[in-house]
Design goal:
Strands 4-3-5 form a 3-stranded mixed β-sheet, with no helix packed on it. A two-stranded antiparallel ribbon has the order 1-2. It is of the alpha+beta class. The mean pLDDT is about 90.
Length: about 150
């Protein structure tokens, strides 16, 4: 990670009202270039840089960064994944064969792009999290053969 990038990440963590610990900055840097990673993938990706950082600490880091709006948690089958693209209402598409996840634009382009049917007991809708299940082009032949 370059010094400029690290300074930007440090500032981003501080703007969220948190101390810019090495674990937070490293996790944010990893997720900036590896979106849709699990906490285990983040841990593996920064272990050489921070060998004393435990798996539990990484879980704490991604949870803290998510709570402060720096990260977005994507709940998909298997394990939660994290990304730095926040503040919009994009959705995800997940290959059911290889489990790759990609971003897709909001269904209608407005947040929230889906509304519950009938009246809602909660009057302010913030977002609609949608994950499309699909088969990617790399997996379609194997999937059709099965």
């Amino acid at each position: 990670m370059t010094t400029v990038q690290e300074a930007d990440l440090t500032e981003q963590v501080r703007r969220a009202g948190m101390r810019a610990t090495p674990g937070r900055v490293a996790a944010l840097g990893f997720l900036s270039s590896h979106p849709h990673s699990t906490a285990a993938e983040v841990h593996a990706g920064i272990a050489a840089q921070l060998p004393s950082l435990s798996m539990q600490s990484v879980h704490n880091v991604v949870n803290d960064l998510t709570e402060k709006g720096v990260l977005r948690r994507v709940d998909v089958p298997g394990a939660a994944r994290y990304e730095t693209q926040t503040g919009d209402n994009h959705h995800h598409i997940r290959c059911v064969v290889c489990h790759r996840i990609e971003d897709v634009d909001c269904v209608t382009g407005e947040a929230p792009c889906l509304s519950p049917a009938g009246s809602s007991p909660m009057p302010v809708l913030l977002s609609a999290d949608v994950t499309f299940q699909a088969v990617c082009s790399q997996c379609v032949d194997a999937w059709q053969a099965s």
